[in-house]
């Protein structure tokens, strides 16, 4: 087992198409972990081994890999760059000690780059950048660098390596701080970067600062120590230069991973809690990934935080009190390839087969009394489909299959809307949900129909109304009689019922039946059959018959009296309003704001976050069902968004009339 001081754990993140998978492949090859590097186009890379990834020629899932480089073991995770699969990246970042953000030297930082910076910044782990694809004709290192500096600050983004040449002539990189043989054509650029580095390094230590200000030359060892400290504190982000296709600058990057990336012994939990991290401590780790292996079954991936996990041993799930699991076989993974191991120490990522009740985000430990680590926060879904079976009787098969699939995709959720009674499959976009449906068909041999879900409208009133109803029915034998008079008014705090009957006009034992009738109407309002809210009801009069009155009669009378009163109280239809944050490059600002106005949206403000424009708006849910697809089309895949429910607001009268007419037509067909 590799010592913790000789282990490096990091995540590779960034925008789609920046070369993350190609870089991962090259590192494995250079380290001797694979015989030859595959390519995305040839569909033979280690990372993109799932069928749907090979079909799309893009990463959809995170992939765990490991290799030995100069007596040090790398554990790293290649992550997808598309926004719909952000959950995979979020989980991988949670399990990492450092982040390598890959940036395309042609297109520069994109929305996927911004997401990676944001996630890793929130995680408070050291960040590094690789400006990749410098062998391409239109690649521009300096222009990419200036955009990055504009996003994050000149004194934060500092190149540690500088490319020599460009395009086909790009052949090597030089170390800004330690290389002495600098080509004349880049000497000025390197000198400027070196000055920024020395300023940043001097700030890490008061004594160094004084010596530096006095003009004293700092030694290489002092510079290296200050460099590591500045990176660890998050004060600076080193930038590397290279080409994963031409294998230029990647050896230098891998060497720097050993030299500059933190060891697992410096791991800090998300909540900042201090914890003894050592190989001698109790074994504790966090589950961050799960997959269904066609041969082994469920594989659970664990990042070891501290201590040593061993095969054929018991562990406790600290996130689920009382749950005890058995670790049988353990594996180090390279894509789908498995290497059996007997133990794993801090920084290691290993897979366990067939755990029964342990899920993504859980903490496992050999010590039942350890404290659980913070879990993983996933973004809320932004799109939903109503799910139904294509064949009658397949509903249970669909539910069972979906539950197994979404166990491995935490950003996809399955639930039931209690108002519309639809089963909803929710996720980060139509592509992700289409993949889930395809896997359901391929793996479980059952087909689901995905359709636009109904909007969960609500109904309320804006005025006051009086309702009266006499229910009288006489058939052979005992009849039915009940009379109810009530008033309703708007009540912002919610539903309120009061019994204001005096003189026994309605006996107290029948009042609950009247309220049940009112509750019937609250569940299915008179406008479009949606729940009624924000109403105060006062029952103030009525009549009864000593023989013919009963609970059913008063329930019916209460229902019809409420319906009459609501019709007089200026009823309105309410729709859910969502708070939406849209992340886009500045180029698309006009298109996005214009589209939001068309969707009846209200723009609340704009700000810049990680180099991207963020448009903040409130938009009716009815306008947002296809927004993931529309945004992708408007921004050529460079935009993303998140949204959350805010409140209900009245539907404009013209739209409310259309919705009501449609509801009445559907009700007539059902009858």
Please give a structural write-up:
The chain has 671 residues and is α+β, with helices and mostly antiparallel strands. The protein has five domains: 7-179 and 236-266, Rossmann fold; 269-365, Translation factors (Elongation Factor Tu (Ef-tu), domain 3), CATH 2.40.30; 383-451, Elongation Factor G (Translational Gtpase), domain 3 (Alpha-Beta Plaits), CATH 3.30.70.870; 458-569, Ribosomal Protein S5, domain 2 (2-Layer Sandwich), CATH 3.30.230; 574-654, Alpha-Beta Plaits, CATH 3.30.70. 29% of the residues lie in helices and 30% in strands. The chain has 16 helices and 32 strands. The strands form seven sheets. Strands 14-13-19-10-11-18-15-16 form an eight-stranded antiparallel sheet. Strand 21 and strand 22 (423-427) form a beta hairpin. Helix 3 (86-94) packs parallel to helix 4 (111-123) and helix 10 packs across helix 11. The radius of gyration is 31 Å and the shape is elongated. 44% of the residues are buried. The mean pLDDT is 92. It comes from Victivallis vadensis. It holds the Pfam family GTP_EFTU. This is Elongation factor G. GO terms for molecular function: GTP binding; GTPase activity; translation elongation factor activity. Residues 5-265 form the Tr-type G domain.
